[in-house]
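Researcher: Let's do a round of design. I'm pasting the structure tokens now; please hold your answer until I've finished.
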């Protein structure tokens, strides 16, 4: 009835356009923040002000993410070319 689970090798990680993806996500969070800003009073009256601050936090954390993935991408390129870090 029960049998051993199938074991497969893990696939190689997918390296897509990481920097562009993080920049796009950050821009989306910031645009959502700006779109909700005119409705600040409504959000405050209905107890949904956290929606606004969640979008701002997403944009802020996205900025940290942009910094991180750009440095990571540069480090990967240096490792491939064998260049010295600055």
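Researcher: That's everything. Go ahead.
Model: Designed sequence:
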């Amino acid at each position: 009835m029960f049998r051993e689970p199938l074991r497969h090798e893990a696939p190689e990680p997918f390296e897509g356009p990481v920097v562009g993806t993080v920049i796009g996500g950050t821009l989306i969070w910031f645009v959502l923040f700006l779109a909700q800003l005119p409705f600040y009073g409504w959000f405050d009256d209905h107890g949904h002000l956290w929606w606004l601050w969640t979008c701002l936090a997403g944009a802020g954390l996205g900025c940290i993410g942009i910094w991180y993935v750009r440095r990571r991408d540069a480090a990967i390129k240096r490792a491939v070319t064998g260049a010295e870090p600055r």
